[in-house]
Amino acid sequence: MIKTNYLILIFSICCAAIGFSQTGTVTGKITTKDGETLPMAYVYSKNSSSYYTESDENGKYALTLPEGKHTLLISILGYLKQEQQIQVFSGKTITLNIALEEDPDMLLEDVSVTGKSILKDVQESAFNVVAVDAQPLHNTTLDISQALERVSGVRVRRTGGVGSDMNVMLNGFTGRHVKFFIDGIPMEGFSSAFQLNNIPINLAKRVEVYKGVVPITFGSDALGGAINIVTENGKQNFIDASYSYGSFNTHKSFVNAAYTADSGFTARLTAFQNYSDNDYKVDADILNLDTNIYSGEIREVRRFHDMYRNYTLMGKIGFVNKSFADQLLLGFTWGDEYNQVQHPAYMKIAFGDKYTTSQTLMPNLTYRKKDLFTKNLDVSLSANYNFGENANIDDSTRRYNWLGEYVDTDEPGEFNYTRMFFKNRNGAVNTNVTYTVNEKHAITVNNVLNTFSRKSRNEVEPSAADAYPSETLKNILGLGYKYKMNEKLDVSLFSKYYYNQVGQYADPESDGEYEHLTTATKELGYGGAASYFILENLQAKASYEKAYRLPTARELFGAGNDFELGNTDLKPESSDNFNFGANYNWVMNSKNSLNLDASFIYRDIKDFIRQVVSPSTGTLQPGNEAKVQNRGVDFEARYNYSDFFTAGASFTYQNLRNKLKYRTGRTVVSTIYDDRIPNMPYLYGNADFSFFFKNIRNKEDRLSLSYNLLYIHEFDYSWSSYGGRKIPTQVAHDIYVNYSMKNGKYNVSLECTNILNEDLYDNFSLQKPGRAFAIKLRYFLDKF
Amino acid sequence: MLFKKQFYVALALATVISTVSCSDDDTSTSGSEGSTATSQYIIAADDTENSYLVGTEAITEGSVSALGGNGLQVIGTPRWYFYKELAAFSFIYNQSDPGATQSFILDTEGALEARSELNLTVSIQSKGIFNNKMYIEYSSRNYESPVATFYTVNGETEAIEGPITIDTEALAGNGEYAYITDVEQRNDELLIGFRTIKAGSDGGDNAFASDFNNHTYVAVYNEALELQQVIEDEGRTGPVAGQSRSQGETGIEVLENGDTYVFSSAIDDADVASGVLKINDGEYAFDEDYFFDISAASDGYKLYRTYYVGENTFVVQMFTDAASASASPSYTRNKFAVVNVVNQTFDWVTGVPEDISSVGIPYVDADSDEVVFPINTSTNPHLYIVDAATATMTEGIEVVAENISAVGKLNAEE
């Protein structure tokens, strides 16, 4: 713990060095030439890029600057940049209203080329965060999880095509350690009808990936990091509608629209749909249904029972910019999902009738107010409650092989005779209060309350446990302090108090004795982050968090079967997460610019919960048995040449090792000590480039051509000391062509993914789609 | 046209990158460079997640490693069952994940070879060999579906027959449901040991609850699995032995003279004695005059599984704690004894390691009066050899691996 203490010491010294310089404030309103308000315009001092702000939904902004002369730069997508000279006097407020002129050449695609604007705010925070600008991807058919794959340190592993199961890995942490948020609300209880693998990229304005150290506003036991989807909230009147059609009979549609009246009344509607037959070709061993013996001969066959569809509808009504609220929205999300299951966790068996359904029924509430009761006191609250029902149905009496042939049998259930219905009740409330003492000190209190209750019932195998829900109540209270010493140094310190209460009617030993069990775990976590501008274009960052993940009800009490047992003695998993990074932004001249971002990460995970197999009984029981260490490097680079060309690359190397030297009850060094954690890519990267062509038929049309490369180096499926199977090196190439008319109002895109039709696997033997084509038509009206 | 030029530049660049980054088609490999003798002991080792079959000619001393490609990798941690000395079968035991069953043999070169995979739609609980067929089954523990599902697999040709279902409510005949715990051949008949359970029919939480824990049942079936009759005993001991979780193994043994001995753990009831009953050659009833009270002979302990080494002598694995016998894995089974069922002698095995964490499926070497147990302790796992003549256990070969779960012997195909 010497390292931790040392880091805290540094922070303390920084905090002690508080000094008060003389500052003044500039406020005003940003509009178009026609007087229409412009929210989210970026306002910053040219003299020092660390003084910046953004206009609110009313177009208003306020920026505090050191005394003296400044050149203010005001920019927003689609408008010409404007510069204003101002003189700031200590303690005085000056008003500067700005009217921006539309940029006739500006197109959406330029965001990726030239625009940093709002992303910069996030990127330059002291945390190890990557913000993906989603807007340049809005003409593609990507879902959010696919867009995430382009971020260094992130791998998204899928079991198949559209709608298939996915597992996000972030610097060696997987699934349960990485938490997802949408506008700061935890997505844990959203059910699978509304998840990263079915939400189209068009819903997101940007996606923020917090590696290892997670700001307190995301109160969650996210041991390994957090991913936050930021949706379009600022725009007042717009329509974004698109439809795409692609290989494997894939249809995707999306509509996102908002209307805001002068009275402040606002109505927003988002609807999307995905459908795919997922009938891509795979290599499979064919079972002879007469003999029940596999042929052993691998044949190329089409998937025949893998249809996926989902519908989601989100509506919100409320008010913006009223005296009682900057934003008060009441909404409802409805989601419905149907998913055919083609095979279990390996490809040997083919199913022909098994399916799952999922439903999201979720009212939600958002409230935001700046300067509530008193100046500088900002309050926000968001809450939701999901009460959808899910089902898992496996009651067919047919047995299939990979050719789609079947025989009838007497026994129902292709896998395990089930008609299981889950009734989930999930609620989340995120409350955030920030008080800014003066321009330098800000204190934030954040609380996230999460409740979960699940009642399940298997119609074909009634159990005494059916009558009792399994329940979780999780509360995370955070206190944060932010200190901005000057334009160069920025420090945040925070602490989180975790409380987790789980209750379940269970039989943890599987000895037939059910009882109602509850247990509560508590932990105190803490961390900090600092950033310093060594040069105006060179920023250094460091952050640390002692993070926890509390055991789930399933880990404590078992899965309710006689195979996966519970362990009521489990301790929370903990991790020391360190990040050191640097960002260098080199503007060579007016046309060439290069941005380099490198970070070194260190993760030391203790009391890691893993399922331990009992060799004599074949059962699994979770234990705090593992100890894992990761040292890794994430690297990102982007080069821009004017608004004609951009190229980027991201690269990740992680040295993720098993550090458990002696297993429980053992006196010999484990044979897998210091092995790489198996079945986990450790060397991978992306590269992309795009060309943008203007003036094709007329000034308002644009053509863009993009290429994306994905590389994953060979990795071991199992513990490497044993020399078992490997997952081979994989390379995939994707090409995107987009033609935009009328400044991005009408868009046609063509894409070809996996153009060389390579065999791609994220999981052992589970083949992903080969070459696929798609066309997307999109209508985008920015304001009306 | 500036646009045209830019377009060609872009296209050229795309082509170059695509060409440069083509991958070669690696395939997954799993190596096996172990022993190449035509008769080998095969040990199932694991790295905690996946299994490795390791071959060795000698087992009394030395060390063999599953590391570095020396073992044949088998995905997952299946349950192993040796069909005679011909094939090692891997059965996936996971109710929610049944799957393909694969068997491994020694080829003429003495190398392990995977045979064609078989499709079984149920997890396998009890198994037995009848001539050249394995009878393998799964008993439901839910009164809503009162069946036991059998398959037969020809150990040589791998031909599968089934599923054949048995009505467990009818078989029990006492208002409960039959739950099969052992399968054994006697001449041209199958002796199938079972216990009866409530299977949730009482609305209770424990599917294995029973009012008949002091009954012993052996059903007699013909080769086609048609019920002939049920042999029953009451009040002396409990159901046929050897249950761990849902899996029952051993307990019925037909000796050279045709007499059948039936062992019982007397599970789930501290008041019922663990013991041995006898069915005389050619008869269809328990011998009223024969009862070997193991609980009494061992000063209160109960037996778990039984391995016959010949000459009326069995090596018996016992529950560690007195008076306890349960299917639950938290009841350890770390004691061993040698019993003679005719003389009714009981001798504790000496030399058993103190720090056993688990005991795997053993190899019975009847020719040498020995049973070879794979045992995990606080050090690397070892094979331990019980000599029935002296009732002693000695440490054999070390296996460099995280765990071992089974050992058997395979002879190469001729």
From TrEMBL, chain A:
It comes from Pustulibacterium marinum. It comes from the Bacteria. This is Outer membrane cobalamin receptor protein. GO terms for molecular function: carbohydrate binding; siderophore uptake transmembrane transporter activity. Residues 122-226 form the TonB-dependent receptor plug domain. GO terms for biological process: siderophore transmembrane transport. Residues 1-16 form the signal peptide. Keywords: Cell outer membrane, Membrane, Receptor, Signal, TonB box, Transmembrane, Transmembrane beta strand, Transport. Residues 319-755 form the TonB-dependent receptor-like beta-barrel domain. Its main location: membrane. Belongs to the TonB-dependent receptor family. It is a multi-pass membrane protein.
Automatic annotation (TrEMBL), chain B:
It holds the Pfam family DUF4374. It comes from Pustulibacterium marinum. Keywords: Signal. This is DUF4374 domain-containing protein. Residues 1-23 form the signal peptide.
